[in-house]
Specification:
Chain B has 289 residues and is mostly helical. Chain B has 11 helices and 2 strands. Chain B has a single domain, classed as ABC transporter involved in vitamin B12 uptake, BtuC (Orthogonal Bundle), CATH 1.10.3470. Classes of the chains: A alpha/beta (422), B mainly alpha (289), C alpha/beta (241).
């Protein structure tokens, strides 16, 4: 009789133990997230910024960033995904080479070999547009910061835009112009200079729409192909048309050539407004020196914001310690991308892509939970309704927020001073 | 659109055209001497730009200083190309000759892609950042030096062809290979020299543009396509016509773009190219050198 | 007699087509030798083979006792064999001056070359006055003169002329023959292939008549001219054009 009871007890313990460890055995040790970015190509600096931003976030989520402790940032106090028993977040990178074809092939390769639970990318709008059908087909939830409007117009269920879209990004330009107008600054002609892939075209279309809706007739639109040695005709066209508010979308190499040509041809509009690209790349600042000054851009974050959010300073300092430079729009956006994904995984309590997608739809992160200045909440098209931008201007070779006033750390310089005075 | 703007576009076009002219002369030389179109020509220019970049990035050498070295290396590459590839293919059908330079193009471009990756690299030179005013017209020091350098290099080439024994022998081989052989001129040796000179011209062009243009594996297209148009314009095989054609193409490119829409500048170049081929198939200054 | 050129039993073919089938002849120093015969006899082929454009399959060719069979044109030029092709071989876009300069390509010394150019131009005043003009602007006769002049820049031991008067008007033809005689008088050994057999025999020292790749008849110019049999058999159409 005692032996039978003992046997039963041992069996029960065995079953319970099996159950406990069995459940544990079903919980993954790590959750894999794919990241498709331009590690090589015309703007490798950009890709590197995205990479270190994402890695920084992943490290924080896995418990490796002490500086984040105690903050409201999502993932700050974690040691891996809590609801998955501390499963580590593992990032796997693929290089899009800034090419839609390569990006698509790499996305497919990544998804089929590594089988990630989620993906993010690809920075270049043109590449993201090429990747979107692939992730939709394989049903992998995907976050992006690309601005191309079409990404959320085609009914993709698995693509989520964390950052501003072209309209949200362009909106701030017109608010800025109104604000400048109140300050007595005058201008007469709005023109656009943009590279001719998805990023440039989408933003230019959005700006045109928004301008017309406000009763502004854009005076000239100059699309250009990259891979050129001589941009004189583009700048001469703008100069000849008297464009004094110039909206520009360029990547680094063409951005450098354009700025140099502007100096050469003595063309200095009152305002140069860029959606980001060349002016986020440290290489541009290296090459241009003081000539990089006075351009303005749609800005999504600034280290100076840390004056209102002290935790941001601590985070930026730690990032700077690890990577030798401040965080910028790219590293911050990719940091936030990782946070959004980690949040969805945690709420889904699963590493299954479809479960994560359902959780991601319900994302509700406030501004203090992420590094971006705004929170994350998706509408039915998966745009982020909370996304908004600021305006920064390059002053003393650094980007400083100049608008809106409550976030500003410097007074804007309008108009851009003539080249002869510089 | 003021006269000043148009004039500036012509000046800028001329500067750009100088380099295109050098490229066109290099292509035209080979075409004129041995009836071979070197499709890989732009890739030699690209490799020259990489060489310039690495000498700059690794040894701090200003492109203007490394120019002679690059020209020399490219000369050697041209001779090697002739001896290893073209010499054999010359005995074959025309089709094989065309394919061989196309094959070279693929090899050179994709080796660069593999080895250097598609990142843009930019050299810096003493002349990278200045602006020079010629009256009311403005040119960057980089493009002015590139223009002057191209004119100098082309003049040196023309002098070589006109006045040196080897240059005359080269022209002789181009005009009548068998007759040249009967006078003791070795065609193969002269063809190799021609390839060397042609590649060196690409080397010079590549170095000159390195002060204002970045290099990636695709940069050959930027200069070669207008270069071909210039060769057609100037008359195949006529190096003087090719030079003039280059200047014209440069102006068509920049001024055309300024007067119409910048986006179509390259299309304008091709339009001119096609129009000339259609109306005067031998080019504006057609016929052999 | 001292032979400048000794051809012994030479066989040469174009692909499978045998043209020279055991041809032998001799040329002494300072002679003007004519090579005659019907079409296809191998006259041009003989010159091409001696000049190094064709390799003999068999037999020997000796220049002043030195075996030269199988050597290529550049080497033969250096040994002093100058060859003027049947077809026009001037460089059309180059000037008369430049064409002459290239005639001396294999030579080294420039001062001597310059003197020789002047001497040649003195021989051809019509060319001298147009020396900076392109060769393509010259008449048929002037071209021939330039080609011969160019060949002389080599200071050749042996001058091979392939149908120098072909396609020329009778008066011009005479001019060319006069030139050739002048060249010979100055001491150059000349072998001349000719269709105009009568005139050729009149000016040459000796002549060979070829048929089917072999020498059929050999003799002094006036002998062959006088021979009825030879005239009828070989020289029927040789009255000039």
């Amino acid at each position: 009789m005692r032996r039978r009871v003992l046997g039963l007890v041992i069996a029960t313990i065995g079953v319970v133990a099996l159950g406990v460890f069995g459940i544990d055995a079903q919980m993954p040790k790590e959750v894999v997230v794919g990241v498709i970015i331009p590690l090589t190509g015309p703007a490798p600096g950009t890709g590197q910024d995205c990479k270190v931003g994402a890695e920084f976030a992943a490290d924080m989520i896995n418990g490796g960033v002490k500086a984040a402790a105690g903050s409201a940032l999502l993932g700050a106090g974690w040691s891996g995904i809590p609801s998955l028993g501390g499963a580590r977040l593992k990032l796997v990178f693929a290089d899009s080479q800034a090419s839609p074809e390569v990006g698509r092939a790499e996305a497919e390769r990544l998804i089929t070999t590594v089988k990630p639970s989620a993906t993010m990318g690809a920075w270049h709008s043109g590449v993201t547009v090429a990747i979107a059908p692939v992730i939709e087909r394989y049903r992998i939830p995907h976050t992006t910061v690309s601005t191309a409007t079409e990404l959320t117009q085609r009914g993709f269920q698995y693509l989520f835009r964390v950052g501003v879209n072209a309209h949200q990004g362009g909106e701030v330009l017109f608010q800025y112009l109104d604000w400048m107008g109140k300050d007595g600054k005058k201008w007469s002609k709005l023109g656009q200079l943009h590279e001719d892939t998805a990023a440039g075209v989408n933003f230019a279309n959005a700006i045109e729409e928004m301008a017309k809706a406000r009763g502004i007739t854009p005076a000239l639109r100059v699309p250009y192909s990259r891979e050129q040695a001589n941009m004189d005709s583009e700048i001469l066209k703008l100069k000849s048309a008297g464009i004094d508010v110039l909206v520009q979308t360029s990547y680094t190499s063409d951005g450098i050539i354009i700025r140099k040509t502007m100096r050469k041809l003595d063309y200095a509009p009152a305002l140069i407004f860029s959606q980001g690209g060349f002016d986020d790349d440290p290489k541009f600042y290296e090459a241009m020196g003081d000539d990089a000054n006075f351009g303005s851009k749609r800005q999504l974050w600034s280290p100076a914001l840390s004056s209102s959010k002290p935790i941001l300073k601590a985070i930026n300092d730690e990032f700077k310690r690890r990577n030798g430079r401040d965080m910028n729009d790219n590293s911050v956006r990719y940091f936030t991308n990782v946070q959004v994904i980690a949040d969805a995984i945690n709420r889904a309590k699963s590493a299954d892509p479809q479960a994560i997608q359902k959780a991601m739809v319900a994302t509700d992160l406030k501004a203090e939970h992420v590094l971006l200045v705004h929170g994350v909440k998706f509408d039915d098209k998966h745009d982020n309704v909370l996304a908004k931008a600021m305006v920064a201007q390059v002053l003393d070779r650094q980007l400083k927020i100049v608008f809106p006033a409550e976030a500003a750390t410097a007074k804007p310089v309008w108009p851009i001073p003539a080249w002869s005075t510089r | 659109m003021t006269a000043e703007i148009v004039l500036q576009s012509v000046v800028s076009g001329l500067m750009f055209g100088g380099v295109i002219a050098l490229v066109a002369v290099g292509v035209s030389l080979i075409w004129g001497v041995m009836d071979v179109i070197n499709f890989a020509y732009g890739e030699y220019l690209m490799w020259a730009m990489y060489l310039t970049f690495f000498l700059y990035a690794g040894a701090g050498l200003d492109p203007l200083l490394s120019l002679p070295l690059t020209a020399l290396v490219l000369f050697g590459a041209g001779v090697l190309t002739y001896r290893l590839v073209i010499q054999r293919v010359m005995r074959g059908p025309i089709f094989a000759q065309l394919l061989s330079t196309f094959g070279l193009f693929v090899l050179l471009r994709y080796t660069a892609w593999l080895v250097f990756r598609p990142d843009d690299r930019q050299s810096q030179s003493l002349v990278s950042n200045g602006v020079v005013k010629l009256g009311e017209m403005r040119v960057s020091t980089g493009e002015l030096v590139a223009f002057a350098g191209s004119v100098l290099a082309t003049s040196a080439l023309f002098w070589f062809l006109r006045s040196t024994r080897t240059g005359k022998a080269l022209r002789a081989v181009a005009q009548d290979r068998e007759a040249a052989l009967a006078l003791g001129i070795e065609p193969d040796r002269l063809y190799a020299i021609a390839w060397g000179i042609s590649a060196a011209a690409a080397g010079v062009a590549g170095t000159l543009v390195s002060s204002f243009m970045y290099v990636n594996p695709l940069v050959g297209d930027v200069f070669l396509l207008p270069g071909f148009a210039a060769v057609a314009l100037g008359g195949f095989g006529n190096v003087y016509g090719a030079f003039a054609g280059g200047l014209v193409i440069g102006i068509v490119n920049v001024t055309g773009g300024t007067l119409t829409v910048p986006k179509v500048k390259l299309a304008l170049v091709y339009l001119v190219f096609l129009a000339v081929l259609f109306m005067r198939p031998k080019g504006l200054w057609g016929g052999r050198q | 007699m001292t032979s400048v050129l000794a051809v012994d039993d030479v066989h040469a073919s174009y692909g499978r087509f045998d043209v020279l089938r055991g041809l032998s002849l001799r040329v002494a120093r300072g002679e003007l030798v004519a090579v005659l015969g019907p079409n296809g006899a191998g006259k041009s082929t003989l010159l091409k083979t001696v000049a190094g454009f064709l390799r003999p399959r068999q037999g020997s060719i000796q220049l002043e006792g030195e075996e030269i069979g199988g050597l290529r044109p550049p080497a033969l030029l250096r040994k002093g064999i100058a060859y003027v092709m049947q077809r026009s071989s001037l460089f059309p876009k180059m000037t008369i001056q430049e064409n002459l300069e290239l005639g001396a390509y294999v030579r080294q010394t420039t001062v001597e070359v310059r003197t020789d150019i002047e001497r040649v131009l003195a021989m051809f005043p019509r060319l001298a006055e147009r020396r900076r003009q392109r060769a393509e602007g010259l008449s048929g006769g002037e071209r021939r003169m330039l080609e011969i002049g160019r060949a002389l820049l080599l200071r050749p031991k042996l001058l091979l002329l392939d149908e120098p008067t072909m396609g020329l008007a009778p008066l011009v033809m005479d001019l060319i023959f006069d030139t050739i005689m002048e060249v010979r008088a100055a001491g150059t050994t000349v072998v001349m292939v000719e269709q105009n057999a009568r005139r050729a025999l009149e000016v040459s020292d000796r002549a060979y008549v070829l048929e089917q790749g072999q020498t059929r008849v050999e003799g002094r110019g006036e002998e062959l001219l006088a021979s009825d049999a030879v005239r009828r058999a070989y020289l029927g159409s040789g009255a000039g054009r």
